[in-house]
Design brief:
The protein has 351 residues and is an alpha+beta fold. It contains five helices and 19 strands. The longest helix is centred in the last third of the chain and has 24 residues.
Length: 351
């Protein structure tokens, strides 16, 4: 009987929604961030998961990033497990066939002769922007229909990133931006409202927020945030607190690793603006050094805010249609905008 204490039930965890069944929302089409740029030095090869399948990212010796499907067409070796970069090529770990940046076979392995095989690697469209490495996920296209612009201010600090493992969907994470009711109730803001109605334009959805939040021991902190969604794969939020000359850029990039489970990359950059607040006579180089030192702390503050949402995201279901109340924000309009990123035959439930 000495081991009986090990079998006492102390607490039951909530069931993870959709863990054993089909999720109510499919994988959206668009740009997905695979890794921060700082994770790949020249010659590095890493593997990332996308909806239950692997992709391999590598950086050539000249610094170019490529994203490919993982399996060598010769005999199926996984390039992320022992593959290496030689110059501008990635080399299979099994028979040392080399593949160029376009995916074509650049060289046969040692001891092989004859013509080069026609079948090469499947290369995904990729971009390196805002200190992140992105791949286009969805219907293969000769040319991607839109891109994420460069949004970082060169005067600010280089972004620092962390990653959260969540049981939810990108649409649910982004919905929190328009759901101002939860900002007051869950995050303790004394006031939060849309400064003006959100604007949707093609693949972008912009939401201006005005907020007041407690900032002990300094009282209340007032600020404004301009949030823009680029599809369901990237959020850029720029918050300004004029009284102290502070600008914080927050980037959120969810990646579906399997149905209803994401890795959420959270990036933060800090700018101390010399034209506002107490910094009007401080050299820009000194301000940037201070901003760089302050970035990890601000990342922890942003992550702490998000941690309040984590248990809700992990246990909630997708309410469709939602029973909305006054003060919720334009959730219905947001969901209508989001439907464009799903295949026509799997557009998800009605809003």
């Amino acid at each position: 009987m000495s081991g009986w204490r090990h079998h006492i039930v102390r607490r039951e965890s909530p069931k993870l929604p959709y863990a054993s069944g089909e999720a109510p929302l499919p994988s959206p089409e668009g740009w997905v961030m695979l890794a921060p740029s700082t994770e790949l030095r020249p010659g590095d090869v890493v593997t990332r998961r996308l909806m239950g399948e692997d992709v391999v990212i590598y950086r050539t010796r000249a610094g170019r990033v490529r994203v490919v499907r993982p399996y060598c067409p010769h005999l199926g070796a996984h390039l992320g497990c022992g593959g290496k970069v030689e110059g501008e090529n990635i080399v299979c770990p099994f028979h040392h066939f080399a593949f160029g940046p376009d995916g074509d076979v650049a060289r046969l392995g040692p001891g092989y002769t004859g013509k080069l095989p026609r079948d090469g690697l499947t290369v995904l469209s990729s971009e390196e922007v805002n200190d992140g490495i992105f791949a286009w996920i969805g219907t293969p296209r000769a040319k991607v229909p839109w891109r994420i612009p460069s949004l970082l201010d060169a005067r600010g600090s280089r972004p620092r990133f962390t990653v959260l493992d969540l049981h939810t969907h990108p649409q649910e994470v982004f919905e929190n931006i328009v759901d101002v009711g939860h900002v007051r109730a869950l995050h303790g803001y004394t006031d939060a409202e849309h400064a003006r109605p959100p604007v949707s334009e093609g693949h972008t959805y912009s939401v201006p927020l005005r907020f007041v939040r407690p900032f002990p021991p300094f009282g209340n902190l007032r600020g404004e945030t301009e949030v823009t969604m680029y599809g369901l794969g990237f959020i850029h939020a720029r918050s300004c607190v004029p009284e102290i000359g502070l600008e914080i850029t927050v980037m959120l990039a969810p990646r579906l690793i399997e149905a209803w489970r994401i890795h959420l990359s959270v990036g933060v950059s800090v700018l101390l603006a010399p034209q506002t607040g107490p910094f009007d006579r401080v050299p820009q180089s000194f301000l940037r050094a201070i901003a760089t030192a302050a970035t990890p702390l601000n990342l922890r503050v942003v992550a702490a805010d998000l941690y309040g949402d984590v248990p809700v995201w992990n246990a909630k279901v997708y309410a469709s249609p939602p029973r909305l109340a006054a003060g919720d924000g334009p959730i219905g309009a947001y969901r209508h905008w989001a439907r464009q990123f799903y295949p026509a035959d799997r557009s998800g439930p009605d809003s």
